[in-house]
Design goal:
With 252 residues, this protein is an alpha/beta fold. Helix content is 48%, strand content 15%. Bound molecules: nicotinamide-adenine-dinucleotide.
Length: 252
């Protein structure tokens, strides 16, 4: 308990899946959580359930970042953590990806992570530091054939994270920046993808532990526990790191 007590932490894409699990775990451990999402109905309901603050945000809109940071500064007076988590994963290969899909995926993942980090650092600097977690994927490490733009965006997030970490260390900002690389985790995004690729919902009837071991699919809390560690002071010597949460999929 209390591993992030009183830390003010923003989680984007927090109305579902991994972002929601992050928000739940961080609130349980004492953080003042600000959940943002493009879906205000689900986002507000989940925020109310855990006593978090909700802000409607489309992370791919640059102006939204100044609005979110202004509201956080006015309401909480500081920012200690940011989880750049919001994302989409349309299935499209190098041959089928349209320019529209390419731009949309890079906008939500890459542009948003850039604006999120830039605006968070400006606010964190005022109170002596903080921790940023950028949600990447094992797609950044191995590339996924059916996910061309997604793999490119997650690879960009991986190296952007290291560039930010080095800058913050060299400038003595007291801000750490790390990326998290989940394998397949049981969320609406993955259920949808599996259904579309295989024609059946492979996860529908499985209990989570059976699913994890048989299909190699983890639970949102497996990732949320890593995010919690990176936002807590327990990880004070960890920056620029890529934390893989995939049950060893990428080393087999
Ligand atoms: N589930 C996995 O297996 C897995 C693996 C690796 C990486 N990831 C990454 O984790 C993150 C969360 O994925 P998830 O599986 O929880 O997906 P999800 O679809 O369950 O949740 C994504 C959330 O992001 C929100 N969102 C989408 N576009 C947005 C926008 N423009 N602005 C603000 N919010 C927006 C959605 O409304 C939703 O609440 C994504 O970045 C994803 O790429 C997931």
């Amino acid at each position: 308990m209390d591993r992030v007590i009183d830390k003010v932490i923003i989680v984007t894409g927090a109305a579902s899946g991994l972002g929601l699990a992050d928000a739940n775990v961080l609130a349980r451990e004492g953080a003042k959580v600000i959940m943002t999402d493009i879906d205000p109905e689900a986002g507000q309901a989940h925020a109310d359930a855990i006593g978090a603050h909700f802000i409607t945000q489309d992370v791919s809109e640059e102006a939204s970042w100044a609005q979110v940071m202004d509201e956080v500064e006015k309401s909480f007076g500081r920012l200690d953590g940011l989880v750049n988590n919001a994302g989409i994963a349309p299935i499209a290969t190098i041959e089928s990806t349209t320019t529209e899909v390419w731009r949309r995926v890079l906008g939500i993942h890459l542009d948003a992570t850039f604006w999120g980090c830039q605006s968070a650092i400006a606010l964190m600097k005022k109170t002596g530091g903080g921790s940023i977690v950028n949600m990447s994927s094992t797609a950044a490490l191995i590339g996924l054939g059916p996910y061309l733009a997604y793999s490119a965006a997650k690879g960009g997030i991986r190296s952007m994270t290291k560039s930010i970490a080095i800058h913050c260390r060299q400038e003595g900002l007291g801000i750490r920046c790390n990326s998290v690389h989940p394998g397949s985790i049981s969320t609406p995004m993955v259920h949808k993808a599996l259904k579309s690729l295989t024609g059946t919902d492979l996860m529908a009837e499985e209990d989570p532990e059976k699913t994890r071991l048989a299909l190699g699919i983890g639970e949102p809390e497996d990732v949320a526990n890593m995010v919690l560690y990176l936002l807590s002071d327990e990880s004070k010597h960890v920056t620029g790191a890529e934390m893989v949460v995939d049950n060893g999929d990428t080393v087999i």
